[in-house]
Amino acid sequence: MAMAPGDTAILARADFDALVAALAADGRRVIGPTVRQAAVAYDAIAGSADMPVGLADEQGPGRYRLVEAGDGRLFGYTLAPQGWKRQLWPPLQRLFAAERDGGGFRVTDDGSAAPEPAAFLGVRACELAAVRVQDRTFDETFTDPGYVARRQAALIVGVTCARACATCFCASMGTGPGLAGGFDLALTELVDDGGHRFLVEVGSELGAAVLARVPTRAATPADEAAAARQTQAVADSQSRRMDTETARRLQEHPEHPRWAETALRCLNCGNCTQVCPTCFCTTTEDSTDIGGNRTERTRRWDSCYSIDFSYIHGGSVRTSGAARYRQWITHKLSTWHDQFGVSGCVGCGRCITWCPVGIDITEEVAAVRDSETGGTGHGSGRHA
């Protein structure tokens, strides 16, 4: 069946592995959800047998568990602990390597090797929004050749959410749960009286070419209506929301008492920055072998919670935990707009789930809002 961008079709559950095979047919490495150490992880998969079949996740402040859902869904979980940033902006990158050559050095690796083509299977709406944020960071505002090359080598298969977990707030950020472009193919997994199937939307000519290799049937209005109802139900079920207007104004409150109050709980562990799909702080390191004949420069993830991160001649700029916490939340929600024209938050809620003490970014913003309006100063980001 010939398809074009904007067209939809139905893929039966029994034919899902044919889609995975079609994604891999052109030498792409298919990266999708699997289970590692009792958590969903995005890694190489060969088919649905490698996926978290019938599993759902329970998430809350400082809590993550995988549980049996019993519905056979392939995408019944909401989010893996790590997002797709790990694939596009790796935790450790070698920038160059060189070795001694007579009286000088010869570059043996300039970091320009072409990346392996990949297909990202299962990109959620908030995660796709995060990719667009990083596109602005590494392709529009500043061009990082490695990021651009990996991005161009990736085919994206998005998946709409069938449920929301307790830490999701993408609806209030305008980043989900429905997919709004930027994908090659988009899947909505449906399990109802009509059977177990996927509504597939074509987002690009490349996606259409892949889908042409897979058995599908025409989507009916009933299929499309079921998908729309499911997505709306996910949005309606979200119990947290971000007050985006107050978030934009955080930079107007550099001395707000909330920073010091929250810092009493914050461990400065940097978990929030490591799981955030848009944080991009890095540091570079040079290393030389003991004989002085080979050297390399690497770039690795860092965090603004590290006291060394703001070190300049004479010492660190942000010596207190309160200052480092304020830097993270103010940059993420407020000054990111000045720097890149968008928010640095996409409402995935990972920072809430993976904070060991359960600090909730939506509650922090609500507390500032309440103090502005004469409230208690301990507001909640949850719906009443």
How would you characterize this protein structure?
The protein is of the alpha+beta class and 384 residues long. It has helices at residues 16-24, 85-88, 125-141, 145-152, 170-173, 205-211, 221-237, 244-248, 257-263, 271-275, 321-340, 350-353, 361-372, and strands at residues 8-12, 29-36, 39-44, 55-60, 63-68, 92-101, 104-109, 118-123, 154-159, 185-192, 195-202, 217-218, 282-288, 294-301, 311-312, 315-316. The strands form 4 sheets. Strands 3-2-8-9-10-11-1-12 form an 8-stranded mixed beta sheet, with helices on both faces. Strands 7-6-14-13 form a 4-stranded antiparallel beta sheet, with no helix packed on it. A two-stranded antiparallel ribbon has the order 4-5. The protein is globular, with a radius of gyration of 22 Å.
What structural class do helix, strand and pairing data support?
alpha+beta
How many runs of DSSP E, i.e. beta strands? 16
SSE string, helix = H, strand = E? EHEEEEHEEEHHEHEEHEHHHHEEEEHHH
Q: Report the sheet-strand fraction.
A: 25-35%
What is the arithmetic mean of pLDDT? 94
Major sheet, described briefly?
A: 8 strands, mixed
In short:
The chain is α+β, with helices and mostly antiparallel strands and 384 residues long.
Task: Set out the fold topology.
Elements lengths: L7 E5 L3 H9 L4 E8 L2 E6 L10 E6 L2 E6 L16 H4 L3 E10 L2 E6 L8 E6 L1 H17 L3 H8 L1 E6 L10 H4 L11 E8 L2 E8 L2 H7 L5 E2 L2 H17 L6 H5 L8 H7 L7 H5 L6 E7 L5 E8 L9 E2 L2 E2 L4 H20 L9 H4 L7 H12 L12
Parallel strand pairs: 2-8, 8-9, 9-10
Antiparallel strand pairs: 1-11, 1-12, 2-3, 4-5, 6-7, 6-14, 10-11, 13-14, 15-16
Helix pairs in contact: 9-11
